[in-house]
Queue: 2 jobs
Job 1
Amino acid sequence: MSRRVKEASLATMENAGRPVQYLPSGKDGKQRMAQFIARRDGLTLNRAQRPPTGLCARAASPPWHCAPASPSRGHRETKKSELQRTPREGLCVYQYWRHPVFVFMSARLQSWLPFSITLFLNGRQWLAQQLEQAALHYRGHRNCFTWVEDFEQAQQLMEAQLRTNWVESFAGVRSAVHPCLTNCASGIRWNIAGPAPTASGPWT
């Protein structure tokens, strides 16, 4: 099942003619490589395109802290198996996208049950696009804003990000990252879980 999940996820990029690479370690700068590929192929990241455009995919095995139950790790007194967190390696698929709303974003799919998907996006890139759509001028340097024409309106745009319907917004990305979700995990409901986002502006 894990192999089928991995191959289906990578095929999303392969079928679109986008590069797929296998990395020996999860410590490599995967995001920087994705941005380099986008620039090399003339795919700008400061303007979102419709529909979402795949940039590339990576397969890597970063270290994870798992909690397997094993008789060999049983408690000496109770003589029962215990869950103990131990570092292990597990293959993950990383996809990088140019998204119509979130601009540059990425997704990480674990190739083992429950096949968790973790999504990453840059709220400042997203806000920059909102400012441009609202015809608000700004100046930016790397990943921050050094000046914004209307701070109050910009703050309202940022706070509006927190009211996003995440399940609906990520539905298309989910099906591309994990194409065989319905077949291999029938009955599992799609939920959004993770750390709560904040609306603190880059000028605070």
Note: The chain has two domains: 1-121, 123-167.
Job 2
Amino acid sequence: MSTWRKLRFHEEVTGLEDVEFVSRAMNGGWDIHYCADACVVHTHDESWRQTLHRYERESRTLVSLDPKHRIGALEAFNLAAANISADYWYGIRHGFGPGSLGSVAKFRSAQFMGTWRGGRPSRLTDELRRKFYYPAGLADPSNESQVGDMVEY
């Protein structure tokens, strides 16, 4: 039986599902292999706030799997600055216009601020949990009256 058929993604994990899946697979004794020629493209069309919240959720998940992945505010600032600089330099060398440079700073600031915020001790109130994980129209599984059937793959 394949690892995927046995383990599946946890439906309640809303970020880093692949990392959580691999962590369970490795803990279960499965081998993980890297395939260098595999090509995956994954994009998000998000506002700054949505990007911030996505990275906060993903950081929260990563830190719950391994607390050593928590970063402090100074490290987050330094990583954002280093990545913005590297992205700008790449953009200049490859002919990207100045208009794209502002979006780089916005994205990187949301990425590292969210990562820092997600690693801090939990401040996830019920209201914030609903906002992060169950946007308008999506059922909250902690409310049994909203829960439908489990997704079968």
Note: The CA atoms of residues 57 and 132 lie 7 Å apart.
